[in-house]
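Supplementary Note 3. Input sequence used for the single-chain structure prediction.
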Amino acid sequence: MITVVKARSQLPGGTVVSAADLVLDRVAASDAPRGALTDPDALIGRMLAAPVAENQMMTQLSSVAPRTGVSPGHVIAPLRLGDAALGALLRPGDVVDVIAANTDAQEAVVVAAGARVVTIPDLPDERAGPSPDGALVLIDVDAQTASAVARAAAAATLSVIWR
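The predicted structure, written as discrete structure tokens, is reproduced below.
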């Protein structure tokens, strides 16, 4: 028998693991997967790479180092996409180019190259569903690029393409 670390309950991917999320349990060594963790401290403070089930035995592959913020010189900037459905296709971690399309001038230009999607915020129930305002997305960019995105949003429709 060995003691392994298990998930106390079902946890969604992206959860930063705390001691309250874990339990220790004794199992037959033959039932433990290769690399099963025996010390909860190896997971505490790390982010789950994928959802885990209640009582799932944990391995180092279950988690990744959490993002602790943005790089020096970078900011988290709001991006309002012209097409709300496009936001549903984005995932945190996606790297995109932000394009501003000005129909009056009949041109489209890249205003932010290589922006990392941080999150697509859930809107409160009264704002859920398609919005005429488009999808809100938070992106990680440098401060100068954030200003360019804000200027473009005032005069153009914003969209993204994936890298």
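The helical segments are 84-89, 143-155. The chain has two domains: 2-64, 74-162.
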